[in-house]
Design a protein that fits this description.
Shape: globular
Number of helices: 7
Radius of gyration: 17 Å
Strand content: 5-15%
Distance between the termini: 27 Å
Number of strands: 4
Strand order of the largest sheet: 1-2
Order of helices and strands: EHEHHEEHHHH
Helix content: 40-55%
């Protein structure tokens, strides 16, 4: 979550749902309302066999690029899950991944609409990131993070031009904005 943002960390989650888990609301987090995502978060955290959220900071994103940062966030989530429960296969949303240890993996384009585990991970990553961006709105009130959550809206880019970047902005993403 947060791959295309101008500010904030990038998040990825790993979720192992119990066999037969079913929830009619569960879908790609981008297709859900904030209320639905928060409702699902409670259910997923309670019912998942194991789950974790991995984070890569804006500074790390600037150092290694967003693709590598997204994969690193996935690996960090997997490391946490692995401490709780061993697994022998990983399914990943999208078409890019770097092997995690020697664990077999499969990438699935639009996986968050095809796999309950991927959809659940999508929800946890999104709500965790949104919660942090609301906290950042309190630390950096001039940027309106509570409104745009760090995405490159006109409001956000105008505020960056007015105030300059904050400590949580991804400087590598701001070259076109700041010149």
């Amino acid at each position: 979550a947060g791959r295309g943002c101008l500010a904030g960390d990038v998040y990825a989650a790993a979720v192992i749902l119990p066999e037969g888990f079913c929830n009619d609301l569960l879908n790609d987090s981008k297709q859900l309302t904030e209320k639905q995502r928060n409702e699902l978060r409670t259910i997923i955290e309670r019912e998942a066999v194991a789950w974790a959220v991995g984070v890569v900071t804006a500074k790390e994103i600037d150092e290694i690029n967003i693709l590598n940062a997204s994969i690193l966030a996935m690996h960090r989530a997997l490391e946490q899950v692995e401490k709780k429960l061993k697994f022998d296969h990983i399914i990943i949303d999208g078409n890019r991944f770097k092997p995690y240890k020697t664990v077999a993996y499969q990438t699935v384009v639009k996986g968050d609409s095809l796999s309950a585990n991927i959809a659940a991970a999508s929800v946890l990553a999104k709500v965790t990131r949104d919660d942090v961006m609301l906290e950042m709105a309190e630390s950096f009130p001039q940027y309106g993070f509570e409104v745009h959550k760090g995405y490159g809206t006109k409001l956000h880019t105008d505020l960056i031009k007015q105030y300059g970047p904050s400590d949580i902005h991804r400087l590598s993403f701001l070259k076109n904005i700041l010149g």
